[in-house]
Amino acid sequence: MNKAWWKEAVVYQVYWRSFKDTDGDGYGDLEGVIRKLDYIRDLGADVIWLNPCYGSPDVDNGYDISDYRSIMPKAGTMATFELLLDAVHDRGMKLIMDLVVNHTSDQHPWFKESRSSKDNPKRDYYIWRKDANNWRSYFTPSTWEFEERTGEHYFHSFAVEQPDLNWENPKVREEIYDMMRFWLDKGIDGFRMDVINLLAKQFGFPDAEKPDNISYLGNNPGIHEYLQEMHENVLKHYDIFTVGEIPFVTPEDGLLYVGENRGELDTLFHFEVCDYMAHWDIQRFKEIQNRWYDGMWGKGWNSQFLNNHDHTRLVSRFGNDTTYRVESAKCFATMLHTLPGMPYIFQGEEIGMTGVRFESIDDYNDIAMKNKYKEEVEKGRHPQEVFEELLHLSRDNSRTPLHWDDSDNAGFTDGKPWIRVNPNYKEINVQQALADPNSVYYYYQSLIRLRKENDVMVYGSYKPILGDHPQIYAYTRVLGQEEWLVVLNISDQAAEMDLPDSMSKQSRNILITNYAEPDLNDEFRLRPYEARIYRLK
Ligand code: TEU
């Protein structure tokens, strides 16, 4: 197994606009990230993934970029960014940025020129066609927007305000490669690549038999040539790591993007869980994990995450955010940090923050949710029914401000927060976590420390046991003489753990568990959401 610094890393995702506000405008900012870097370092994370902070009209919270080489004012200045990068490096940490190059903002100068006339030199920076087709976009009923001025439609995989770049145009590719060098030459340590498998479009844009299954947007012919050209022209010249956000992908296809000899990307996020599993389904989760391990291990590197800025908080979606919030947060953390692949911590996950439930659609910001709400209500459906339906998976569930303490606005801002703070901040906040030796925060810290001290958690082989147990997910990790057993009761009921005979005879000691007191009455009875890591001898 080839070793690499990034394979051993733990990534902490900073959604800066909800992280810490220092100028009172109600938005987090880069200065706020600088002031809280020691909090992230002390947790043990060593790479920060910073969500987009480039010039943008902010229709999709920075994923609609109008100036790739500037910092949007609400985040700060380029000087502040450079101070942040230095401060991260001074702590021996690394920083990766979001690369959003499938599309720009409709306010980008390139698009303003492109839409101005059919013979503008930048017309072909984007995708224009006389006729539309029946494809849906992620955020709208159609991927096409008609413009009277030139009598053609432009293509957008997301919002109308996010026109897709035409990657068939070598001038577009050169512009992007040049922009990437601009940031890499500043010293950033890599990229998280936004929906990077959508860059190539289906030739001819044929109508889809099933327009609602939007997988036609990704993994089209040409994508690997683009990424190999990007690697040859830019990526291979820097000591960085790249992670592709790759929806609609299987392990076999995934290897085409991150295979060790492919000359494309280093790692990926797949979405078989977060895009398709609304609630916890243990058998399905085990099947997905096993299939991705069998498909990738030894050939490419995977990621482990169960929430980010697009997916609601794991303790609400998959765990138990009431009776067993702390236990289930720690149980899932144990899983994410012991499964094969790179663990990602989304800000607030480390203190067990939960999803939200605001009263009205007007309390929400997410363009995906608001567009879907509008689309469904315009079909004549009852607004409250649509609202209730969208609540559970709204991306705003994870985008509310981080809870620093129990003061106004959870210590996030002295101004009016851009989105409401989760009302449970008085009970769930960093200050409380740092004062409680049994907090989720310190459990994450112990898990990360265990990982840093034991290569078996990074490079060990994985073998599931108790495969069909309806509550328990258990598996071993083995590297050389080291054999670890992870057992997780991912349920709100006690569970009996009947280990295989060979294993039950082995002596074992518990390295970490999420219950303060071991249940001495019966080691083989796991309490609700009880997690244990054993070292087997
Ligand atoms: O997300 C792609 C996207 O639409 C995800 O929400 C999707 O549901 C899944 O998580 C990936 O298949 C990226 C960004 O993360 C998101 O915030 C942006 O809105 C979107 O691209 C457009 O840039």
From TrEMBL:
Keywords: Glycosidase, Hydrolase. It catalyses: Hydrolysis of (1->6)-alpha-D-glucosidic linkages in some oligosaccharides produced from starch and glycogen by alpha-amylase, and in isomaltose. GO terms for biological process: oligosaccharide catabolic process. Its EC number is 3.2.1.10. The keyword Secreted does not apply. CDD domains: AmyAc_SI_OligoGlu_DGase (cd11333). GO terms for molecular function: alpha-amylase activity; oligo-1,6-glucosidase activity. Pfam families: Alpha-amylase (PF00128), SusG_C (PF23915). Residues 13-399 form the Glycosyl hydrolase family 13 catalytic domain. InterPro entries: GH, GH13_cat_dom, Glyco_hydro_b, O16G_dom_2, SusG-like_C. It is an enzyme of class 3 (hydrolase). Belongs to the glycosyl hydrolase 13 family. This is oligo-1,6-glucosidase. It comes from Cohnella luojiensis.
